Automatic annotation (TrEMBL):
The keyword ATP-binding applies. SUPFAM superfamilies: P-loop containing nucleoside triphosphate hydrolases (SSF52540). It comes from Pelagibius litoralis. This is ABC transporter ATP-binding protein. Keywords: ATP-binding, Nucleotide-binding, Transport. Residues 7-231 form the ABC transporter domain. The keyword GTP-binding does not apply. InterPro entries: AAA+_ATPase (IPR003593), ABC_transporter-like_ATP-bd (IPR003439), ABC_Transporter_VariousFunc (IPR051782), P-loop_NTPase (IPR027417). The lineage of its organism: Bacteria, Pseudomonadati, Pseudomonadota, Alphaproteobacteria, Rhodospirillales.
Length: 300
């Protein structure tokens, strides 16, 4: 697997009339890398996807998809796309629809049954798609995305309409796509999911890229406080609060916040309290905290 990016965006700008939707976006995704693209509605995520797919033209900047120009035959062969609202022919069965896509992708029809099984549609494959739930249609869209060994996979809200178990299964398939060497860009509002299942986080705010790094690096750069929740021994919460400060929680616990550089000193002070403390929970800033920070929500 090469370190050369499979997807590259260089100072990408997009305007519609006087409205500037994207403002100098530079982003790369390497083979096997899973990057989450976050942002409010209207931040520019969908516009960025359309530019990568060649569905709309750049105002300025440059995009390459596996070394090819967006919209070119080479770029289309190298990429796959799963939209939030998938649409299939309602009168076709799932098997018939996927066989059609396989032929269009130059794949053998023999790949269809294993793919349907892989996304959990083996038993429903013979039924008309018009009788399926939204989640089942989303699974068929993922099976389509697996065709042709894509080098770049663009997934727009891929877990939309899925139950928790199906969401877990879907991300397992996304992991397989990345393991095969595809660069994966996932636009999502499901912060808890992408926090655990992506390698890097990119955040758009009003058309600008305001963050692009690993979760740990974003935490270090943001400098947000760490939360410590201390459970006191029986009837010891008041004394615990007196010694350490903080807020009482549920009558038996005390919650403290500290800067990252203060963490070890705070833990030393807590250890010195000995039997007064029954338990300690430490939580670094979550992706939701970081998203609010980088998108400007915590400054409102």
């Amino acid at each position: 697997m090469t370190d050369k990016p499979a997807l590259t965006l260089e100072k990408v700008c997009k305007r519609y009339g006087k409205a500037e939707i994207l403002k100098g976006i530079s982003l790369t995704v390497k083979p096997g890398e899973r990057v989450a693209l976050l942002g409010h509605n209207g931040a520019g995520k969908t516009t960025l996807m359309k530019l990568i797919l060649g569905l709309t033209k750049l105002t300025a900047g440059r995009i390459t998809v596996a070394g090819a120009e967006p919209g070119s035959a080479a770029a289309r062969r190298a990429s796959t796309y799963l939209p939030e609202a998938v649409a299939f022919h309602k009168l076709l069965s799932g098997r018939e629809q996927l066989r059609l896509f396989a032929r269009l992708a130059g794949e053998s029809p023999r790949c269809v049954e294993p793919l349907l099984e892989r996304v959990g549609l083996g038993e429903a494959a013979g039924r008309r798609i018009g009788t399926w739930s939204k989640g089942m249609r989303q699974r068929l869209g993922l099976a389509q995305a697996l065709l042709g060994q894509p080098r770049v996979a663009l997934l727009d809200e891929p877990t939309s309409g899925l139950d928790p178990i199906s969401r877990h299964d879907l991300y397992a398939v996304i992991d397989e796509i990345a393991a095969r060497g595809a660069a994966v860009l996932i636009a999502s509002h499901a912060l808890t999911e992408v926090e655990a299942r992506t390698d890097r986080i990119a955040i758009l705010r009003q058309g600008r890229l305001v963050a692009d790094d690993t979760l740990e690096q974003l935490r270090a750069q943001a400098g947000l406080p760490i939360r410590l929740r201390l459970t006191a021994q029986r009837d010891g919460a008041e004394e615990l609060q007196t010694r350490l400060g903080g807020l009482r929680v549920n009558g038996t616990a005390v919650e403290l916040h500290c800067r990252p550089e203060e963490k070890m000193d705070r833990l030393a002070r807590i250890t010195a309290l000995g039997g007064l403390v029954a338990d300690v929970e430490m939580a670094p800033p979550s992706l939701e905290d970081l998203y609010r920070h980088y998108s400007g929500e915590d400054r409102r």
